[in-house]
Amino acid sequence: MSTNQNYLIIVESPAKGKTISGFLGRNYVVLASYGHIRDLPAKYNLDSLIADDFIPKYEVIQDKKKTIANLKQYINKDTIVYLASDEDREGEAIAWHLIPALGIDPKRTKRIAFHEITKGAILHALEHPRDLDVNLVNAQQTRRVLDRSVGFGLSPLLWTNIKRGLSAGRVQSVAVKIIVDREEEIRAFIPVEYWKIKALFKNPTLKAELVKLNGKNITIENIEQATLIENNLKGNPYILTKIEEKPGFRSPAAPFTTSTLQQEAGKKLSMSVKNTMSTAQQLYEGNVQKTIPNHEGGLITYMRTDSLNLSEVALEAIKKLIVNKYGSEYGLDNYKKYTATSKGAQEAHEAIRPVNVNLTPEMLEPYLDSYQYRLYKLIWQRTIATQMKPARIANTIYTITAGNEKQYEFQSKGSRIVFPGFLSVIGKSGDDVILPNIDVNTVLELDTLEKEQNFTNPPSRYTEASLVKKLESEGVGRPSTYASTISTIQARGYVQTIEKSLAPTATGELVNKYLVENFPDIVSIDFTAKIEDKLDHIAAGELDWHEVLKDFSLNLRDKIKEKKGVVKEYAASRILRTIGIHPETKQEIHIMVNTYGSTLVMGNKDKGETIKYGKIPEGVEESTIDLNKALSILSLPKVIGLIDGKEAKVNIGKFGPYIQLDGKYHSIPRNIEILSVTVEMAKDIIADDIKRKLERANNPQPQGEKKFFKKKWTKK
Is residue 223, in this structure, part of any structural domain at all? Predict the structure, then answer.
């Protein structure tokens, strides 16, 4: 190490460090801790915490010992160490853990933070260091220990009562419950029939819908009512009796927080929460595809924030851009400032915005990858729009009456944008609907009269975006953790993504059932939200974190002891729900969870019946399994027909679904549902499988790769 080096700056990621290094002189070395350097010991659990009088113990993470050794090389008695981790609970804790892990003198340690990675922001932070925020550290410690206590306390019970490899979590289990509850709502939903009557006029063309009868809003419940109205309307004149034009306004949305960015990126860009956060991290660090001319550093401010603030400097820059790019009539007379409504919002931070609004998306497109460009464009547009005037809209309603006493009232609606305002940057959602120019009291010429059957729809499944919105509105977890929460419940096999929506698996439903029955507080939205509220109070220095740990831990320990003391075979409860009764055997068919995952089971041992299992094929949505589909699965292996005079069977084996023909086995691709395979499809699948096997035979693996997979099973 050079003797001239006096300053060490420790950040979380090497990408951030590389960017910051470019702003500083030779006396500064910028290195990364790669996240947390210390954590609770691997086997540290609820009993350990209680034994330690609620003072958690930590140890250096095994794979971080090399990182620590490298950091220590750059520290001597004269070194000033700047701890520059992110300015949130996790970042504060990372900085706090670094001091004992590196054995550095706290007096020669300074805490710095910045919300954007620009030269000005970095230099300002170095000139204005602060002390470590111990309250933030304690909030993080509390959160970490609580999560460990729940996970290590409840997971073994899931292994005993359901199957190994399962886990519970303070936030993840609530997220699963929310998804399961919505699925139960969908299953219980009974569609309600209703009808619409629509009139299509000609010369000029106009479409209208029946909305009132005798001055009251109309509900048409069945075809009989619809037919009666249709008959009553025949031969009656239709007269345009009223034209209304009502002014309307559309205002821009607030600047992005972490949560709203995740939601909007999901809706508009079809980006997962995880992809959104990783892409935002790249934009924040300036880790982009190509070097941007005349620009150093990051492109957006810190992306983990629940603040709606925009700095005075940013507001002034936005105002100038609006005037220059769109015209002075589009800008606000005074800056518009937004107030966060979420619990525990950190108003001292900024919202997510471009660090330089003059770097338009069009200018940056050549230097960003597709995800980076689309997300930056979304952030840029949203930021500019916040300081633009609302859009003015003219809403037009034509009222058309019919019947001998004009008792039937139809409406036709149109709208047009009078002044686009912020829509000039965001873009219009749909085209103007311009109604034809018709005078009041005009008799309209009916072309056709239609009756249309409809049914009410069940509630929609949650998407990642709507789940984030739900979690935030309920005060469960924090936006910075939503990505990892959603990834966890998917990785555990509790939730599956079906057409961009989240549906529970049988395993997820069973785990939720067990936790609801035995630990209702853990999966209670209110209880979990109260814990988050306590963490906020700890962070604000308003609550003793040891007392929170003590209260939660002792209660949890007692509940776990209670459940351990009850000898209960939960195997019966592994049956999730009953599908129906086999029409021939009269045996009940259930969906259950066993060691191998979700499966169908038919028969009852207690009744002396033969048990038959049917593995649910990959790609078959569990929630859609009805009696007919269950019978098809239980019929496997099944002969689907003859190929070259020989029986072709489909079945599910250890390695997935397959076709059996003439003593040979051919894998069915994952994108093909086994129950849909016909003889003709089977011929194509077999031909493709044979072709793949020939290609592998003609292009064998290199010798080294073969050795990698080869194992010796010789007994000693």
Answer: yes
